[in-house]
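User: quick one, sequence for these tokens?
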């Protein structure tokens, strides 16, 4: 009875902090942020819509077939009204949190433990740029479709004779790879855990569906990509340096995903210490129960597999890419579900239960400190871009603009001129007095 009362207190506090964090993410974003470099470029791409050519447009090695039509629709509706795009990001983030709760509740039948991954995910310095960055919608989409396919796998396990769920799983397993590059190998990871019967040594019906999805993704990718990848993402070089790939993966997992979550205050040394403490506690924990199950294992498999997928084409960009905080969003959602299931299976009571739940609750305000350390420098350029967009948007017919290069605080390379951005503003006149582009 005492445990139940304590749980109620923690659940109430946890969800109040969760709702507060979601509201503050939006409010702070509206006040402090605006379109970032990639957002500006992508708005220009969808403003100059060229049908299927735009849908198949590559971002380095990433296919964003689902993202481009969504961004096009938003641009048609919202124009350059940043708060509307930000609201869409908040909605997508809430969908991710809802799916995490739903999946964990299905696995634990516990409202308390189903809430834990939500508290761990609602705000974190590991990924905050995903919410304020309109480009983050491709990360949200990949995560949502992957979580949905996981949810369908759980339904198939419950109802193995269902014929409707199999084609649904096939479609949902393809969509993460059409949203963002990290999803290109998505079907592999649930296949390793749920698609192969290791006792009977045979592929089950979930496995055959995932194999078909992975083959379909490969065909789509190869047919659309062709020879369009840049020199930095040439597939011939992807596996040419295994040590660099492994280092990229280890750095990304230990510092970006786990390290920043365990110590959101952006002190990497403290993160390393926190990781070691967690490992020691895990090793010394003894239980007569067999704690690990497929769903706990799956969280770790997805986290590792995600960074393998990122590392193979991206190690040439440098190790700092492994520390890009937005990479944490996709794997962290699955890792936290696995951790919540593990904690549930440990049957914690008394002070141990209180301590664990306190860690997740304290993590929310602590994450805001890490968030702030990232936000201060990150919003400088978007704030400058806000003023620049306001200046361009105030241009009237009869004005005479010199077609200069876009300022470096908007796009830090002298590649595009103002006429590249002009369609974004939906003006029906040409303001350029001289379109002669001199090198």
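Assistant:
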């Amino acid at each position: 009875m005492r445990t139940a009362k304590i749980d109620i207190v923690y659940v109430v506090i946890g969800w109040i902090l969760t709702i507060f964090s979601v509201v503050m993410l939006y409010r702070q974003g509206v006040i402090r942020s605006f379109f970032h470099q990639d957002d500006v470029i992508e708005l220009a791409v969808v403003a100059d819509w060229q049908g299927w050519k735009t849908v198949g447009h590559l971002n380095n090695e990433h296919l964003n077939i689902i993202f481009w039509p969504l961004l096009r629709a938003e641009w048609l509706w919202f124009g350059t009204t940043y708060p509307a795009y930000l609201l869409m990001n908040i909605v997508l983030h809430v969908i991710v949190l809802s799916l995490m709760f739903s999946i964990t509740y299905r696995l634990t039948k516990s409202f308390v433990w189903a809430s834990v991954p939500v508290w761990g995910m609602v705000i974190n310095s590991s990924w905050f740029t995903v919410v304020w960055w309109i480009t983050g919608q491709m990360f949200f989409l990949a995560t949502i479709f992957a979580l949905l396919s996981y949810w369908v796998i759980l339904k198939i396990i419950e109802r193995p004779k269902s014929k409707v769920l199999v084609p649904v799983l096939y479609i949902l397993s393809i969509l993460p790879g059409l949203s963002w590059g990290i999803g290109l190998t998505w079907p592999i990871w649930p296949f390793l855990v749920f698609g192969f019967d290791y006792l009977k040594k045979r592929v089950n019906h979930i496995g055959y569906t995932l194999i078909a999805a992975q083959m379909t993704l490969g065909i789509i990718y190869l047919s659309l990509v062709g020879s369009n990848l840049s020199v930095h993402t040439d597939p011939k070089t992807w596996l040419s340096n295994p040590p660099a790939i492994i280092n990229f993966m280890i750095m990304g997992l230990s510092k970006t995903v786990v390290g920043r979550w365990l110590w959101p205050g952006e002190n990497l040394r403290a993160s390393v210490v926190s990781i070691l403490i967690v490992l020691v506690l895990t090793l010394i924990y003894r239980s007569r129960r067999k704690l690990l199950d497929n769903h706990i294992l799956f969280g770790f498999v997805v986290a590792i597999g995600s960074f393998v997928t990122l590392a193979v084409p991206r190690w040439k960009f440098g190790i700092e890419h492994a520390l890009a905080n937005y990479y944490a969003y996709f794997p962290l959602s699955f890792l936290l579900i696995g951790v919540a299931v593990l904690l549930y299976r440990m049957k914690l009571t008394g002070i141990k239960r209180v301590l664990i739940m306190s860690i997740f609750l304290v993590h929310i305000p602590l994450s805001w400190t890490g968030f702030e350390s990232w936000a201060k420098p990150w919003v400088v350029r978007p704030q400058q871009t806000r003023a620049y967009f306001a200046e361009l948007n105030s241009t009237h017919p009869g004005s005479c603009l010199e077609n200069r290069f876009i300022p470096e605080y908007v796009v830090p390379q002298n590649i595009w001129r103002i006429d590249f951005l002009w369609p974004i503003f939906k003006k029906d006149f040409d303001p350029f007095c001289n379109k002669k582009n001199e090198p």
